[in-house]
Amino acid sequence: MQKFTLFALFAFIAPAYAAEDDSHIRTLAASCAACHGTNGVSQGGTPVLAGLDEAYFVKRMLEYQTQTKSTEAMAQNAKGLTSEEIAQLGKYFADQQRSFRFFQKHSLKKQL
Ligand code: HEC
After folding, report:
1. How confident is the prediction for the chain on average, in pLDDT?
2. Atom number in ligand 1 closest to CA 89
């Protein structure tokens, strides 16, 4: 019975925390959309962030923060982020679906 109460309590509290984190990260992610597309699905020449490996994402973001050679655009965008925010953005983008169009484009290229 006690286990059930604990579970019920957690199930009730956890989504509230998740929703709070989510909206902050979503706002941050929206600021990337201008260049990387909605939910990281870039339609132009900018790299697609959707479905990117979390560890790779974090590594790249830390490089943009620390390397003077990084592009102006990404240096500016990585500058103000905390390591916690970078980790959460990495998870957010890793969870996003790459669009069908993206796969289609690439599978067509392979056939040619
Ligand atoms: C003004 C345009 C612009 C904005 C806004 C922007 N980026 Fe970028 N981003 C770029 C460009 C251009 C590149 C590719 C060139 C480079 O590596 O700097 C890039 C590259 C990246 C890469 C490396 C991708 C790879 O495959 O190596 C990551 C990760 C990334 N951006 C994350 C972000 C995140 C997270 C945000 C929002 C906080 C963001 N970007 C906002 C322009 C932008």
Report:
1. 82
2. 35
Q: What is the third-level CATH fold of 2-111?
A: Cytochrome Bc1 Complex; Chain D, domain 2 (1.10.760)
Task: Report which of 106, 44, 103, 105 is spatially closest to residue 73, judged by C-alpha positions.
Answer: 44
**Which residues does a 6 A CB cutoff place in the pocket of ligand 1?**
28, 31-32, 34-36, 46-47, 49, 57, 60-61, 70-71, 73-74, 77, 89
Q: What is the pTM of this model?
A: 0.78
- Please give the Cα distance from 3 to 9 (Å, whole number): 10
Q: What is the pLDDT of residues 45-97, one digit of tens each?
A: 999 999 999 999 999 999 999 987 778 899 999 999 999 999 999 999 999 99
Residue boundaries of the structural domains of the chain? 2-111
